[in-house]
Amino acid sequence: MSGFFGVASKENCVLDVFFGVDYHSHLGTRRGGMAIHGEKGFARAIHNIENSPFRTKFEKDIEEFDGNLGIGCISDNEAQPLLVKSHLGSFAITTVGRINNLEELQSLCFERGVTHFLEMSTGEVNPTELIASLINHKATIVEGLQYVQSLVKGSMSILLMTQYGIYAARDLLGRTPIVLGEKETGFCATFESSAFLNLGYHHYRDLGAGEIVFITPERIEVLQKPKDKMKICSFLWVYYGYPTSTYEGINVECMRNRCGELLAGRDNVDNVEVDSVAGVPDSGIAHAVGYSNVSSVPFARPFIKYTPTWPRSFMPTGQMQRNMIAKMKLIPVQELIRDKRLLLIDDSIVRGTQLGETTEFLYESGAKEVHVRPACPPIIFGCKYLNFSRSKSEMDLITRRVIRKLEGDDVSSEVLAEYADPDSERYQKMCEEIRQRSNFTSLRYHRLDDMIASIGLDRCKLCTYCWDGKEDDEE
Question: CATH classification of 1-229, choosing from 3.30.530.20, 3.50.30.10, 3.30.1330.10, 3.60.20.10?
Fold first, then answer.
C-alpha cells in the first residue's frame, strides 16, 4: 500500500507535512518522500525507509525546507513525490493506487511522443511518473486528472502540487479515501483521517468517489463533483486502516468491535466454551475486545508483540524472512496459556503460514485448545485493485491451494462461487481442510453479510472482490 498527506497553509507547513506523512508509516515500508513549495520554489527529498523509520530519515531535511505548500508520501514500491516540468508548468505529484494496464498506458505515451521513462530497480516504470505523463497529454491539469481517471484500470488517487495550490483527485470508484482537514491557517488532504488530529486540524469532509478539488490556504474549490458509484475497499476497516481513522463516517476501531460482537453471536448459537479470547496484535485486538464485551468471555493477552526493532512483520521483501520475524516478535505469556482453551481472532487468513505457526507455539506453551475466528470471510480471490498484499499468485492463498486439492487445477467461476458461499457444502469442506492443516481446534470465518453489517455501509458501496469475486458491474 501507500499513503499520502498534503497541506496548503498561510504559514510554514513543513512540520505539518512531516508529521502528517509519518502517521502513514503503517501503509508503506520502502520509500518516504516530501516536496515543499516556498519562495525559493520546489524542494524535495526521498529516502529509503526499509531499515529505519520515516522520521529519522527526514530530520535534517525539515530544517532546510521552508514553504506554505507541501505533499508527502509513504510507499511500498516507487519513489515519490516526483517533480515534473512540462507545458502545464512545474508541479510535484504523489499517488496511491494500482495500475493493472500499465504496459498499455506506457505504449500510449510512446505513441503520443514520449521518448522514455526512468526505469526502477525492478525493471518497471514508476507508476507515478506514468500518471504525470498522462496528465501532460491534456491542455490543463484538471483535464489531465480526468483523463487519468478514464484510462486507469485498477485504482488511482492523486495529490498534485503547483505553486498556487494542491489538486486532490480521489480514485474514480473511491477505493481509497481522501479526507480533508481544516484549521485557521489552512487545509490538509490525507489518506488517514487520524494523521491530522494532533496537528490541530478538524474533519472538514471526505472527498467523494472521483471527486477533484483544488486546495489553497484560503479555500477548497470543487473542480469535479463526486460520481454516483463508490466501491471503497472493505479491508480498510478489517485490516490495514489505522484504528483511530474514520472513513465515510465509520471509525476503524468501532467497526472492529462490531465485528467481534457478531463473531461472538455466531459462537453463542453453537455454545463454544473457551477460557479467554485474544486478538493477534495489532489489528485483531479490537475484534477480540468486541467479542469479549458481548460474550462475557474474558479478554486476555497470552502473547505480546515485541516491536522495538521490527514494528511490522511485512517489512522485509522475502516471505521466509517475514514469516520468521512474525514468529519471533510474538512472545508468549505462558501463565495465560498453559491448560487454557483459547479463542484467537486475527484480521484474516491469507497464506495461512503465520497463524498456523502462532497456533503451534500456543500449543507448545501448553494450550489445551485453540479456536480461530478470522475477522473476515475466506480470501478466495487476489485483490486486483490495490497493492495491500505482496501475493503474486492466487495460489499463494491457502483457500486456493485447498480448492485445487479438492477440485483439481481447472475450477470454474461457478464452483468458486460455491466455495465463497458460507451455506454451501463446498465451503464447509474447504474450512475443515484449512482447520486440519493449521491444527485449529475449531475454525469459523466471519460471514460476508455480518462483515458488511459491521461496516455499516450499503453493500453496493463496498468492494468485496477478494471474498466473492464480484466485479464492479455485478450486484
Answer: 3.60.20.10
